[in-house]
Amino acid sequence: MEAGIGKAVSTLLANQGAIVYIMDADEQNGNKVAIELETLGCQAYYKKCNLANQLDVKRITEAIGHENSNVDILINNAGTAHIGTAETTI
């Protein structure tokens, strides 16, 4: 999440006063973005999470709910790119 849509959405919402939780499997980049937002005066936290693992996502979202019971927005920005045709895409 060092760059791209996830970072842009996190930055926009954090700058508007949202408390942002960044969930990413890449600990180095997730922490980097959270620290960048904190240096701007925003509230941002990183949680290591494998977004491809439903149990991991559930565990982390429940933990966030216990830390901050007022969650207004959840954004799933996880994705991958696949280059191919409709015939080769499963």
Unreliable runs: none
Rg, Å, rounded: 15 Å
Give the class from helix and strand content and strand pairing: alpha+beta
Quote the distance from N terminus to C terminus.
26 Å
Please provide the count of β strands: 2
* SSE topology string: HEHEH
Helix tally equals 3
Largest sheet: 2 strands, parallel
The share of residues in extended strands comes to: 5-15%
The side-by-side strand order for the widest beta sheet comes to 1-2
Q: Mean pLDDT across all residues, rounded?
A: 86
- Domain count: 1
Assign a percent range to the helix content: 40-55%
What best-fitting shape do the alpha-carbon axes yield? globular
Which keywords apply here?
90 residues, alpha+beta, two-stranded parallel ribbon, 3 helices, 2 strands, 42% helix, globular
Description of the molecule:
42% of the residues lie in helices and 11% in strands. By secondary structure, the protein is an alpha+beta fold. The chain has one domain. Strands 1-2 form a two-stranded parallel ribbon. The model has no long low-confidence stretch (mean pLDDT 86).
Question: Mind sketching the topology for me?
Answer:
Elements: H1 5-15, E1 20-24, H2 27-39, E2 44-48, H3 54-67
Parallel strand pairs: 1-2
Quick rundown:
This protein is an alpha+beta fold. The protein has three helices and two strands, in the order H-E-H-E-H.
